Amino acid sequence: MGLFGKLFDPVKRKRKLYDKKLEEGMLAQRKGDIRLYAQLSEEAEKMWAEIEALEKEKG
Question: Is-contact 22 44, C-beta < 8 A?
Answer without folding.
Answer: yes
